[in-house]
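Allow me, if you will, to draw on your knowledge of protein folds for a short while. I am sending you one protein, given as its amino acid sequence and as whole-number tokens for its backbone shapes. Kindly check, if you would, that the fold set down in the tokens agrees with what the sequence suggests. The record follows directly beneath this note:
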Amino acid sequence: MIDRGHDLPLVRQADLLRLSRSTLYYEPRPVPAAELAIMRRIDELHLDYPFAGSRMLRDLLRGEGIAIGRERVGAMMRRMGLEALYRRPNTSKPADGHKVYPYLLRGLPVERPNQVWAMDIYPDSAGTRTNRLPKREIGILLTE
């Protein structure tokens, strides 16, 4: 993409490719050997304890004499694509007795601006129903 030997200046090449100039000069640094060893150990521990998150892995590593913090363990886990396996809330199943509203926009082609609008309406702490938009207050109170 970028040709350093071309007659066109690097700034112009970056501008044409819509790249920031800082990306032209970025050179990735290799991961230190000590960090690779810790990441390898985290991977081994993750295979033994797939339910362990960053806090538990931190404690296991500290038990082995490796001084490391939870945030660093979490960053290494994200870098390696690891995450703890545990039961998550099952929020996609409706509760018994709750009405399921149909999706009215299925199959409707949206072809122009302002054709489709959306608004969230939820009960507030006073028991009234209020509609709100981000960073803006709307003084409409809906009664049930």
